[in-house]
Amino acid sequence: MVTRTSKVLLVDDEPLILASIKRQLRKRFDVDTATSGQEGLDKVRDHGPYAVVVSDMQMPQMDGVQFLSAVQELAPNSVRIMLTGNADQRTAVDAINRGSIFRFHTKPCPLEDLAKSIAAGIEQHRLMLVREQLEETNVQLVQAREEAERAANVKGEFLANMSHEIRTPLTAILGYSELAYQSTIDRPDVQKDLGVILTNGKHLLELINDILDLSKIDSDKFQVETIGCSLVDIIADVYAIMRLRAQDKNIDLIATFDGPMVRTIRSDPTRLRQVLINLVGNAIKFTESGGVTVRARLINLSDQPTVDIRVIDTGIGIKQSRLEAIFDPFTQADITTTRQYGGTGLGLTVTKRILAALSGSVSVESVEGKGTTFTVTIPANSPDPSDKILDPNADLNNIHQCNPDHAWQDEAWFNGKVLIADDTPVNRSLVRRMLTAIGVEVDEAENGKQAYEAATRGEYDLILMDLHMPVMDGTASLKRIREHDQGLPVIALTADAMQGARERCRAAGFSGYLTKPLVRNDIIQELAKYLKQAPKPGRESGPGDPGAGEGSMVLSEKGAPTRGRQDTGALNPGTAMGRLQVTEDVYREALEETFPWIIGQFNTLGEMIDDIDQVVQSAHAIKSGSGSVGLDRVHTVAGELESIARGNREGDVQATLTQLGEAVEEAKLCVERYLVGSSASHTTDRTQQA
Q1: Whether the Cβ atoms of residue 565 and residue 678 lie closer than 8 Å to each other
Q2: Residue 377: pLDDT band by 50, 70, 90 thresholds?
Q3: Are 268 and 226 in contact (CB under 8 A)?
Q4: What is the pTM of this model?
Q5: pLDDT in tens, 532-542
Q6: CB atoms closer than 10 angstroms to residue 205
Q7: Are 67 and 41 a contacting pair, CB within 8 Å?
């Protein structure tokens, strides 16, 4: 804060002259006096600050130049004025050039001229203080900006890591649940339970995406594209995706157009679809009877048409007092809404900010107890406003006849050979089962080096490549593969859903990009780009058919696998089987395959303890593999070791490695006991069946 002062210090060794000047100036200024240079310095030091210091030139012991030079060091913001005789003008000019004084007056000096100089000096002093404060503020702003940028980078890295850690287990949860769902057509009771798992797993993924989207928008890392797209196709996709959810609640879902629609709009179809799915999903969630209608129209038929899309429901409605707040982060209509229906309160915030990025807007009208209407308005940016679909509902009805998941994907069958490279056995097994179930021949690699070597030996139609692997990561492996084969399609697999991940993969040379948790239809869409489709053979169970015994799931009335053993903390088979939704036979095989691999990773880690990068990779691999098969204690300690090695938290790498060894040894005993016990039970069951 600027401290304004008008204090003036007069220094002269002639008391009569000093008293005379003070008497005339004190009517206008707060004047203090000193009769020598030393006394003046003491007052500057003890009674300042002074806006202006006026000194005579000729004084004993310390002349005016010496005194004002000393004042300059003590109080650089004080304006310094010298009174001098004609003979001393050259000395005064030299002092001005050195910066010791700002100006001088020649004796005898009219008091009015001296008063004007003092007044100007006081103003100059104020300006210097303001400038000094501005400079300090600017330094603080620069520091604050740098701190904010550092905080944003830390937040971005944290969100990327959290995205990876959450999406990796979701890959197994959603993937295996989808496989099991498709293989239990003849078990509607089981399929219903699996449907609950799939629905809630996908809901969890939606919440994760909302949080990541909001963080990207807040950090200005959220990007939209503008391309030509069909609004009819977008609304048809939203209808297809949300129809089953409406059917589950026994309510109607209607999609319709009011009048003609431009054939092409220029917008971001992915983000617009996300907005509509969020609004329709909310409408279905809060509607218990009646239905939800998506109604689109062209509200401006000029050269710059605007699209109006309304999502109308007959649900619980929103209090008028809460309408403005529902777009705020972490806000819902009221606390009872959160308790009854769940959710983070982020969806509408993300929706509003996405539409702002699309130069659009969203508004809401509601009557409590009767329903709500959200209206989305976006510019069509049509390249040809005159090119219209006169009856868009006819096109929409044709698309409606397709099933929600696009029937061609359910009937897809491919001829081709694919290499899956991932350092986590459970993830490789999941993708292998997905692909062999639709006719694809699959080879596996557990790191980038093996993937590169396999690619140079075999003839593959496609490679699915995890980015984070030991020995050689996915990007380095791709670089080596490209030296061997420029045209081989390689799709990146990553749990990093942060903004820019897709662009980095493209820049590195990957042909495509899939985000974990992997979705079966997303994989099939990538396969369709590079593999030949073939007629699906008869539905006879084979080694790769998820309807065969290996992939079948038998659940008890409580939803747990029928032969699940008691969890121990070190080994939790019941928890793992419930998470993966597999039978005990399948779980036992996965454990028999995965645990020796974990021991090998741990041994490698112990040998390479001085290589911090190797510690990070091996700890991450152990954490991923152990968590999938229920080795929770190993999973927890391996996660701690990875975090310490990455520098994300304080700790002793060697001490944590020792703890991990103890957890592995404890798990080894539990695994051995479990495998012996479950094998005996399995043999007894087979005997009884015979």
Answers
A1: yes
A2: very high
A3: yes
A4: 0.40
A5: 887 776 544 33
A6: 19
A7: yes
